[in-house]
Amino acid sequence: MIDSRSKLTQRFLDRSFSCRLVTHLNYIFHQSLVTDSMEIRELTVEAERREAVPILRQLWRDTDPADVLEWTADDDYRLFGGFVAGDVVGVAGVLVTHVLHHARHAWLYDLVVDESRRENGYGTELIAFIEEWATENGCEYVALASPSAKEAVHEYYENRNYKKWGYIVEKELY
Predict the structure, then answer these.
(1) pTM of the predicted model as reported, rounded to 2 decimal places
(2) 93: pLDDT strictly greater than 60
(3) Are 144 and 109 in contact (CB under 8 A)?
(4) What is the CATH number of the domain that holds 116?
């Protein structure tokens, strides 16, 4: 059964992709998109998240695997995986938030495609999915932070109409 209100579903069906909606726990529905190359779905159980840890550690190299697994289990954090032939090839982790003067938005904490699978469009598919998911969940925008030295990453997002509006400063307290 396809929810006709779903912009994401319609967009992918319009491109001759197939879509299936699966009921999941307390959600009204849980989307799983199957494209010609990649299936994207939320990773909700520990075994699925554990499978994504090696890819997440390509982004967070200095983080212990147990710590990565722990923060992916946070109730408000959503982790989506992109699968090709049953293998996780990329992940996107978001948190919907409404902070101070900012509108409700999806903060993209993690977007990483396995090093051996990059340059195949999987990251772009994951971003498109997150943008549509965020829209369907009442977010006005998607935001993220990127290290200042990662100029290629900045260009990647700018080419996708993300706007640089400031910079982030931080101070380590321990």
Answers:
(1) 0.73
(2) yes
(3) yes
(4) 3.40.630.30
